[in-house]
Amino acid sequence: QVQLVESGGGLVQTGGSLRLSCAASGRTIDAYGVGWFRQAPGKGREFVALITKSSSTYYADSVKGRFTISRDNAKNTVYLQMNSLKPEDTAVYYCAAGTRGVVYSMAGYDYWGQGTQVTVSS
Fold first, then answer.
1. Which residues, listed in sequence order, are joined to residue 3 by a DSSP beta bridge?
2. Which of 122, 114, 103 shows the shortest CA–CA distance to 9?
3. What are 76-104's pLDDT values in tens digits?
4. pLDDT surpassing 90 at residue 22
């Protein structure tokens, strides 16, 4: 079993940047694919980005070219670098770990963090 803790959220102006971290404990994160999801107020949780065990990356169309997912297995951490932020990026961001390969739905992940709030002001 792996425990995940997100950090790095906050308040930023439109066009700004944030880097989210997803720190794992309990097991080494290199055994898992890790996804980032987000949930805006009144909306469902949506896929943002995924990095597989082999470090292949996948992105939602809405963030492609602005967000970058990466992993540092030595630090047992996955990152989400978010640039050119927009008000519509405002949401609680969650990281999740799973072993089912390239999966864009929540059901494909077994372990979830508690989330970190990102607010982008206009």
1. 25
2. 114
3. 999 999 999 999 999 999 999 999 889 99
4. yes
What are the counts of helices (DSSP H) followed by strands (DSSP E) for the chain?
0, 11
- Token match 């540092």: residue? 72
Quick check: 83 and 59 in contact, CB under 8 A? Answer: no
The Cα–Cα gap between 32 and 97 comes to 6
End-to-end CA distance of the chain: 40
In angstroms, the CA 98 to CA 36 distance is: 12
* Two structure tokens written together for 8: 């790095």
Half-sphere exposure of 83 (CA within 13 A, CB side): 7
The tokens describing 38, both together, are 């987000």
Single-letter amino acid, residue 32 = Y
